[in-house]
Each structure stands twice: as C-alpha cells, then as structure tokens.
Design goal:
Shape of chain A: globular
Number of strands of chain B: 16
Number of strands of chain A: 16
Distance between the termini of chain A: 50 Å
Structural class of chain A: alpha/beta
Radius of gyration of chain A: 19 Å
Number of domains of chain B: 2
Strand content of chain B: 25-35%
Strand order of the largest sheet of chain B: 4-3-7-1-2-6-5
Structural class of chain B: alpha/beta
Number of helices of chain A: 9
CATH topology of chain A: TIM Barrel
Strand content of chain A: 15-25%
CATH topology of the largest domain in chain B: Rossmann fold
Helix content of chain A: 25-40%
Oligomer: heterodimer
Bound molecules: flavin-adenine dinucleotide, flavin mononucleotide, FE2/S2 (inorganic) cluster
Largest sheet of chain A: 8 strands, parallel, barrel
Number of helices of chain B: 6
CATH superfamily of chain A: Aldolase class I
Largest interface: A-B, 50 and 44 residues
Radius of gyration of chain B: 18 Å
CATH class of chain A: Alpha Beta
CATH architecture of the largest domain in chain B: 3-Layer(aba) Sandwich
CATH class of the largest domain in chain B: Alpha Beta
C-alpha cells in the first residue's frame, strides 16, 4: 500500500490573522528593535521579532553595572531603556513595514492607563504586527505588580483588549505562586496567546566587596541555560491551564532546547540570551528544527507535543518531588 | 545610520559598522606568558585580522559551553592581515581570562569582530601621544604601528602601579619617537603617575590617544582642558573606555555609558560602549557620571 505523507507545515497561527512562518522568534530585550544587529544576524529566517520593552515616554534605563554573569546564566537590570512609544510607532514601525518578518512590540507600563495608552498608540500602525504585554518586568518599580495577582493581570489585559484589534500576547512572570492561575486569568480576559517565561529574580554577591554586583537592591532578572528546566516546568503547567497558543521562553540555546519546549506544549518559542553569545543561534535553531521535522516526518510541530494521558500519574505536580 | 535605542545623542556620535564584523573559528597559534598575570595570546583568524582597526575589539567565546556563558571583550593588540593573525594583551583576572591563559597552540575559540569604533587615524602626519595605564596599553601596539606606517611621530607614555603590571618594553613597536614608562612605586621607569609627569610630552601634540582606568582618563581630560596650549588650541583627545558587555553589538543595552548632553538637549544621555565606543572623543563623555559608577565587580 502506498502511504502519502501530507507536506510538512511549519507555520504557527497565533490568532487574529497573525501567522508565523516558523515557530522561532527572538525574545524581547535580546534583539533590540530588530535593526540594531540586522547587518550581523539577519532577520529573514525568523518567525517573529519581539521588540525591546517599550514605555509611554523614553527611559534612560538603570545605572550601571546592568549585567552580571552567573553559572550558566546572566542577571540583567537594564531598566527598560527605550525611546518611548512615539519614536517606536513613527520611526521604527516604518522600517518594520518593509520587512517579511512580523514584529510584535513588547509593552511595559507602570499602571493600566499607561498600558492602554501605549497600545492605543500602536494600534493600526503599519509595521506593528502585534503586541506582547510585559506584565512582568522585574526591573522597574511598580506600584502594583500585574504579574503576581491574577485579578490585576486580568483587568490590565481586558482594558488593553478593549482598545485594540492587534494580536495580543501576554508575557507571564515566573516569580509567582501559581503561573497557571495567572495564565487562565489573562486568557479569559482576552489574550490571544501567552508567552512564558520572563526572567527569574536573582542576585549575585561580590564577596570581596560584601555587597551585590548589581546596583540598588542588587536584584536582577536571571536568564540563560540556568533557567531552562524551570521554564520547561512553567510552560508545561501553562499548557495544561489554557487552550490558547503558548510561546515558550527560557534558556533556549540549541535546536534540541527549542524542540523540548514544543514537547512541553509550546506552539512557538523565543530565543533570548543565546543571541548574545551566539548571534547565529536563532538561525541555527530555525534550520535545525526544520531539518528535524523532515527527518522525523512531522506534519506540524505540534506533533511533538507530550501526550500526558499516555503517562498516567499525578496531573498536578506534587511538592515532595525529591 | 540606525537610531539609538535610548535617549537621542543628537547626531553627536556615530555608530560602529556591524557589516564588517565576522564570527570566525580561530585557532590559537601562540601564547606568551608575561610577568605577573599578564600574557599575550595570538589567534589565526584571517577575516578578523584583515578587518581589525586600532581601538576596535573582539568578543571571544572562550569555550562554547554554558560556563562561562558570555563572550569576553578584548581590544586588538595587534592585527597582521598578511599572516592572518590577531593578538590580544590580557590580564588573567577572572574565569574567562584565566581559561584563555591556559590555552595552548591548536586550541580553538570563536572570535567575533571587529566590533565598536576605533581610534581616528590622521589624514596628514603629525605628532601623536599615546597615554596608557595598566592593561590600557593593550590597543597601542596596533595603533602605534598603524600611525608609524602613516609617517606619524609617535610618543608613548605608559604607566602602571608596579613593574609586574607594566607593558613590557620589548613588545613595543620599533620606530617610536619616545617611550616613557612610569610606575607608581618606582619599581621600573620613572616614579609616579602618568598624568603627573605627562605635560612635557604633550608639547606639540596634534592628538592624544588614551586608554586605562577611568580615573586616569578623567585626570587626563581635565589636564588637557585646563592646560594652556599655544596656537592651534588643545590637541584632540580620544579615549577608549570599558563597560560590562552582554553582546558587544548593540542589542542587550548592558554597556550603557554616560554621554554629555548634546547641544540643545535636556537631561542625561546614554550611549552604548559597544557601538558608539569603546573609543570616543573625550569631550563627548560625561566624566562626572562616569566616575560615580561603582567599580566593576565581575
Ligand atoms: C571594549 C573592551 C576592551 C577590553 N580590552 C581588554 C584587553 O585588551 N585586555 C584585557 O586584559 N582586558 C580587556 N578588557 C577587560 C576584559 O573584558 C575583562 O577583563 C574580562 O571580560 C574579564 O573576564 P573574566 O571572565 O576573566 O573575569 P570575571 O570577573 O569572571 O568576569 C565576569 C563578567 O564580568 C565582565 N567583566 C569583568 N571585568 C570587566 C571589565 N574590566 N570590563 C568589562 N567587563 C568586565 C566579564 O566580561 C564577564 O561578563 C576590555 C573590556 C572592554 C569592554
Ligand atoms: C538583557 C535582557 C533584557 C530583557 N529585556 C526584556 C524586556 O524589555 N521585556 C521583556 O518582556 N523581557 C525582557 N527580557 C526577558 C527575555 O525576553 C526572556 O524572557 C528571558 O531572558 C528568558 O529567556 P532566555 O533565557 O532565553 O534569555 C530581557 C532579557 C535580557 C537577558
Ligand atoms: S554589549 Fe550589548 S548593547 Fe553593548
């Protein structure tokens, strides 16, 4: 008997007409606004670009030092240095409009009205393919932390949803008691997709100086391979909680890393810190994932997804895991 | 030119040309241990060697593993396009530089470069004074060679705390008009700081190039600004500065440096060491804010 394998389709539908050519994007804050390193890295291979966090008005960012290396990871305390939404919507979006790759603007506000104002400014702007609401940046002082309280997160997302038809991705913080609860709340409030995770709060001490390496309270966001197992667990948990697309982020540096997130239930992934030490990481991962799909006769990348029902056992992770 | 991600520098500062950078698999060809924790390491990296200009730097991926995770920035100390070789003058101070110190010929690393903006080379020959402190000597063999090739008269004033931190005289390129060495403790050369004994060497200088600790650079900038120079005014000063770097090519915003607010601009202005630097005109930096920055703790 002849079996005909339908052709492989690498595309990912994030909703509201936003279809990525492949599931590999670059994470906010690790690829600038897309054009900074275009000459070095190129962009056409990417499924999507997630911009640096954008605020209502320009921000100078935090005092140096802003980064510190840790074991298999790094801490950052950039403080959302960005030129403000006006420049982004006017000057940067005009370039993006010429690009074959969708750019989603990562949005950060200090309160709901700032999120709404920024998204209103981006709505309908040619070149802006969507927004990613960063309700989880550890590096600016919030009066209210939207990431940790599901009710507040939902109110923020609902308010933004009311003013835009742009595809709306909500980026979740891992620094919460129950990431699934926040994921459910923002999905119910109208998010088209969720991305997980942002950085983990961390610290590095300089023993000889008896103080933290980073300024201020010494706290920064931990990223890189060190957080991959934590991020995988978070993504699997979010996958169980929501039906909308999930974008997996955290320590992805190789093709295998990216594929593991797809197994955990992600529909797409973002490459972050790996862009720094290996500018070609995203390209290598796109090529690697496509080659893997061909080798393993996948029809969609979602074929990789872990089918939990095949693995009987506790569905809720228990606390006594050791 | 790409706009700055951050507050505007109002066209004051240019940006590095990233289209010239390559990420090359490089093979160590030699490692020369020097005094103290210092060493010079050479790599075969023909593409990088062909493109490297004085004052530019490379991001070296010491081991393609997760520890250490980030690349380490080092200035080109020499670049020999015909041989396809680049050299770095390095102090072993932490994990990454110590691993490089253990390299043997045949070992490999990836070298991304050239990155950043280098020193401006003169159109017409004149007199250049190079001023360095400690590891700040690193970019000057290459700069000195390229200046001498252009018929420039070159004076190098080099200092360190002590002999074991001083750039070895035997590695200094031939043909310098003068090499003045200082150590703070007097263990080699003249006793004292470079900035204290510098003024006579600055006589007749058309340009000054400097690299070293921020304190030294700030003192040098003040010295030049306050000194009375004859007709022609003060010589042009370019300094090479450091900042912790996540990427080296403008995407992480980790390497912020304080710039002087531009004409008509309000408030503070930040630049990126890896794109607008590491070499900048002295008058572009906000020295007060630069000196307020805490020392780098690794
Ligand atoms: C543009 C530029 C050019 C440089 N050129 C030279 C050179 O020619 N020779 C030389 O010996 N050193 C040079 N340095 C400093 C060199 O990058 C650091 O000494 C080196 O990164 C230390 O790494 P480590 O792993 O040994 O130390 P660790 O302390 O273990 O490093 C931990 C982290 O801190 C960073 N870091 C530590 N010290 C510095 C520093 N002084 N500046 C910036 N980041 C730092 C490292 O890159 C790393 O990410 C240069 C720095 C810059 C920014
Ligand atoms: C230097 C740096 C800056 C970042 N800036 C932002 C930001 O502006 N907004 C945001 O939502 N996430 C930001 N992030 C988080 C990343 O997008 C990503 O969620 C996180 O780094 C985990 O992925 P990784 O381990 O692959 O880097 C930043 C991360 C780094 C390392
Ligand atoms: S080192 Fe990343 S922006 Fe300069």
């Amino acid at each position: 008997m002849i079996t005909i394998t339908p052709p492989f389709d690498p595309r990912v539908d994030l909703g509201r007409g936003l279809v990525l050519a492949n599931p590999i994007g670059v994470a906010s804050g690790t690829f600038g606004f897309g054009f900074e390193a275009e000459a070095l890295v190129g962009i056409t291979h990417l499924g999507a670009i997630f911009s640096k966090g954008t605020t209502a008005v320009a921000r100078e960012g935090n005092h140096p030092p802003r980064i510190a290396e840790t074991a298999a990871g790094m801490l950052n305390s950039i403080g959302l240095q960005n030129p403000g939404v006006e420049v982004v919507a006017r000057d940067y979006a005009a370039r993006w409009a010429q690009w074959p790759v969708p750019v989603l603007v990562n949005v950060a506000g200090a309160d709901i009205s700032e999120y709404v104002a920024i998204v209103q400014h981006l709505d309908g702007v040619s070149g802006v393919s969507g927004v990613e609401l960063n309700i989880s940046c550890p590096n600016i002082a919030h009066g209210l932390d939207f990431a940790t309280e599901p009710g507040a997160a939902a109110r923020c997302v609902a308010a933004v949803r009311a003013v835009t038809t742009l595809p709306l991705v909500v980026k979740l913080s891992p620094n919460v008691t129950d990431i699934a609860e926040v994921a459910r709340a923002v999905a119910d409030a109208g998010a088209d997709a969720v991305s997980a995770v942002n950085t983990y709060l961390g610290m590095k001490m300089a023993l000889h100086a008896r103080r933290p390496v980073l300024p201020g309270l010494g706290v920064g966001g931990l990223s890189g391979p060190a957080i991959k197992p934590l991020a995988l667990a978070a993504v699997a948990k979010v996958r169980r909680a929501v039906g909308i697309p999930v974008i997996g982020i955290g320590g992805i540096a190789t093709t295998a890393d990216a594929l593991e997130f797809l197994v955990a239930g992600a529909d797409a992934v973002q490459v972050g810190t790996a862009n720094f030490n290996n500018p070609q990481a995203s390209r290598e991962i796109v090529e690697g994932c496509l080659a893997y799909a061909e080798q393993h006769h996948l029809q969609r990348f979602t074929d990789l997804r872990w089918q939990e029902q095949d693995h009987p056992g506790s569905r809720e992770p228990s606390l006594d895991v050791d | 030119m790409t706009p700055l991600a951050g507050a505007s520098t109002q066209g004051l500062v240019g940006e590095s040309d990233l289209s010239r950078a390559v990420d090359e698999a490089a093979e160590c060809t030699a490692l020369q241990p020097l005094q103290g924790n210092l060493f010079e390491i050479r790599f075969r990296a023909p593409e990088v060697a062909r493109r490297a200009q004085p004052g530019q730097f490379a991001q070296i991926w010491v081991e393609q593993s997760h520890i250490p995770l980030l690349r380490r920035p080092f200035s080109f100390s020499r670049a020999q396009p015909r041989e396809g070789v680049v050299s770095f003058y390095i102090g072993a101070v932490g994990e990454g530089s110590r691993r490089l110190r253990r390299f043997s010929p045949g070992d490999s690393a990836r070298i991304l470069g050239p990155l950043g903006r280098g020193f401006t080379l003169p159109d017409r020959p004149g007199r250049s004074v190079l001023v360095s402190g400690g590891l700040g000597a690193a970019p000057f063999p290459l700069l000195g060679e390229r200046l001498l090739e252009r018929g420039e008269q070159v004076v190098w004033v080099n200092g360190a705390r002590t002999q074991s931190e001083l750039y070895p005289g035997e590695l200094v390129p031939n043909g310098m008009a003068e090499l003045v060495q200082f150590t703070e403790d007097g263990s080699q050369g003249r006793r004292g700081r470079v900035t204290a004994g510098l003024l006579p060497s600055l006589k007749g200088a058309d340009r000054i190039y400097a690299c070293g600790p921020n304190q030294m650079l700030a003192a040098l900038f003040a010295l030049i600004s306050e000194s009375a120079f004859e007709e022609g005014g003060a010589p042009q000063l370019e300094v090479s500065i450091e900042a912790p770097m996540g990427c080296g090519f403008g995407t992480c915003l980790g390497c912020a440096i304080p710039l002087r607010p531009g004409a008509g601009g309000e408030g503070p202005v930040v630049g990126l060491c890896c794109r607008q630097g590491p070499v900048l005109r002295g008058s572009l930096l906000d020295w007060e804010r630069l000196l307020q920055q805490p020392e780098h703790l690794g």
